[in-house]
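Look over what follows to help learners.
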Amino acid sequence: MLVKIIIVAFLVAILASLFSGLYFLLKDPSTSNSRRTVRALTVRVALSITFALFLALAYFMGWIHPHGVGQ
């Protein structure tokens, strides 16, 4: 159950970072030296890579199991 909570938390954090990047992209003035958009998207990429590594670890440790459709 803990693994499922971690997976959902990762997905929510990735979506929050993605939408914060979109917000900063739309609302920050273009003449500003603000790098908030780049930082938000960098956080999203880092979270996505960490999430993929966590899924691989969870699979190899036997915490999650793949299943096929209709099985």
